[in-house]
Design a protein that fits this description.
54% helix; 7 strands; alpha/beta; globular
């Protein structure tokens, strides 16, 4: 570009502040515990898109960057939540028309008989167009052991749209890392279309306790002093047991603790209940969980 009339500088800070992306990134830090490598990668993607926006503003045209992504990690590590934040960033920067996420699984895309899959997949794509399509446990689309399975048809439709409409749709594939690796090896066309791979680490016990307190605060509850210690003990025990799902398991545990608190308060309903009591989860409410009666692994 040799146009002498073109701007010679670009104010990236003004572009950053004017896009509201700063607010979205701040909310990631304030609302999502841990996930440091995830947040770092999101900032990198945001920086890429801001610079691309600046380049376009001064006439430096290039192919739009590929924004299809793969999120890998165990359940309850924030993949769906981060997909929603990604959609907001992309919308703020003008890379998608609508700030929305359509979340689906195999059942939403794959039919049970001949001629059923294409309409289902195309309908989902129609709903997601202009935004983000989040496909959880995407590897279930590919079932080579079943010759009559129609998942491959859905994959082929997705591949075509991911290439031809990549300026109007961002696809995020999610699931366990080892299974997603196998999925990509079996579907090289899909692997070549996904530019950003983000791994979501498991939370530590301290991070999960922080998440528990944030969840309770949003519901206008709080753990008592002894309840804090009991919840920390609960988390350490639960992490060692089968089917542990990080923040999802913590949310379920808090729901059960609220149930026990409500029954405890209702049992003493003849006496007026203080507002503080309505808001407090005690040690007994937590330790009544069967997690404390199960033998911990050696």
């Amino acid at each position: 570009m040799n146009d002498s009339a073109a701007p010679q500088t670009v104010d990236l800070e003004a572009l950053y502040q004017g896009s509201s992306v700063a607010d979205v990134l701040a909310s990631l830090d304030n609302e999502l515990v841990g996930l440091v490598p995830v947040k770092t990668r999101i900032r990198e993607v945001a920086a890429l898109l801001l610079v691309e926006k600046a380049r376009r503003a001064v006439g430096l045209q290039a192919e739009p960057p590929s924004l299809h992504m793969c999120f890998t990690g165990n359940p309850g590590t924030g993949k769906t939540t981060v997909a929603q934040r990604i959609a907001t960033i992309l919308h703020q920067l003008g890379y998608i028309r609508r700030n929305h996420v359509v979340s689906v699984t195999r059942d939403d895309l794959v039919g049970q008989y001949i001629g059923h899959t294409a309409p289902k997949t195309k309908e989902v794509l129609k709903k997601a167009m202009g935004g983000v399509l989040f496909i959880d446990e995407a590897y279930y689309l590919y079932r080579p052991e079943n010759e009559r399975d129609y998942g491959q048809e859905a994959i082929e439709i997705l591949l075509q749209v991911m290439e031809d409409r990549r300026d109007d749709l961002v696809v995020v594939l999610a699931g366990y890392k080892d299974r997603m690796d196998t999925f990509f090896r079996s579907n090289p066309g899909m692997a070549s279309r996904v530019a950003h791979h983000i791994d979501f680490p498991d939370y530590s016990a301290d991070e999960l306790l922080c998440i528990a307190n944030i969840m309770l605060e949003k519901m206008h509850y709080a753990l008592s002093v002894d309840g804090q210690g009991a919840m920390r003990d609960y988390i350490e025990r639960r992490m060692q047991q089968p089917r542990f799902s990080n923040a999802r398991s913590i949310r379920n545990a808090l729901d059960r603790a609220r149930l026990r608190q409500a029954n405890r308060l209702f049992a003493g309903r003849a006496t007026p209940v203080a507002v503080e009591a309505l808001q407090t989860i005690t040690e007994d409410d937590v330790r009544a969980s069967r997690v404390f009666t199960q033998v911990r692994p050696a």
